Automatic annotation (TrEMBL):
This is TetR/AcrR family transcriptional regulator. Signal peptide: none annotated. It comes from Streptomyces bugieae. It comes from the Bacteria. Residues 1-59 form the HTH tetR-type domain. Residues 181-204 are annotated as: Disordered. PANTHER family: HTH-TYPE TRANSCRIPTIONAL REGULATOR RUTR, TETR-FAMILY TRANSCRIPTIONAL REGULATOR. Residues 22-41 bind DNA. Keywords: DNA-binding, Transcription, Transcription regulation. Coiled coil: none annotated. It holds the Pfam family TetR_N.
Length: 204
């Protein structure tokens, strides 16, 4: 049933566009009840998002041998999904819904965002193991630097994102992650500043 709902959603988005899509249409063509759809998805926007972007398995880390190469491969794979006409049509509606629906926001964070951040965590872990990074970096920050910027360019600024921009985003994110790792992990022997209790009293 899940496959049928999502496949029907994709077909109808292609035929009528996201704005004209209704849950009733999906239920009728898929041969399921509306209640079955709403047990799975809180809204039309969530259903369409899953159908167009997250029904597909997330790309596995490319294992290119470098942090920049892995990030570039990942952002290229996400760009294909995120720049698709259906995704660009529904993203504003989903963003608006997330801002007013705490339950949907929580589910979105715990499922979709968590899966994406896990991919970044693996890339970072491999970079640390290779000695490219001084230590681990919060994968949520890496996710924000790369896919957050891509989403902003596509859905808010409506920029013409091409492979040159994608390459620059990967390079900038690589530099940012490296700088964060250096900031958080370098110079471990650096003395801590004395506490107030350790300071000698001022002479009278």
């Amino acid at each position: 049933m899940d496959h049928q709902i999502l496949q029907t959603t994709r077909e109808l988005i292609d035929e009528v566009g996201y704005p004209a899509l209704t849950v009733d249409q999906v239920a009728t063509r898929a041969g399921v009840g509306k209640a079955a759809i709403y047990r799975r998805y809180a809204s039309k926007a969530e259903m369409a998002f899953v159908a167009t972007m997250h029904d597909q398995q997330l790309p596995a880390p490319a294992g290119t041998g470098s942090l920049h190469g892995d990030l570039l491969a990942l952002v290229r794979a996400f760009h294909v999904r995120m720049a698709a006409p259906a995704a660009r049509a529904l993203a504003p509606a989903l963003i608006s819904e997330l801002s007013v629906n705490p339950e949907l926001k929580s589910r979105f964070k715990d499922t979709f965002l968590a899966a994406e951040q896990a991919a970044f965590a693996e890339i970072i872990e491999q970079a640390v193991a290779r000695g490219e990074l001084a230590g681990a970096v919060d994968p949520a920050m890496a996710h924000l630097l790369l896919l957050g910027c891509l989403a902003s360019a596509l859905y808010i600024l409506n920029l013409p994102v091409d492979d040159a921009m994608i390459t620059d985003l990967a390079a900038a994110t690589t530099a940012g992650i490296t700088a964060l790792a250096d900031r958080h992990h370098s110079n471990p022997d650096k003395a801590e500043p004395p506490s107030r209790a350790d300071k000698t009293a001022e002479p009278h």
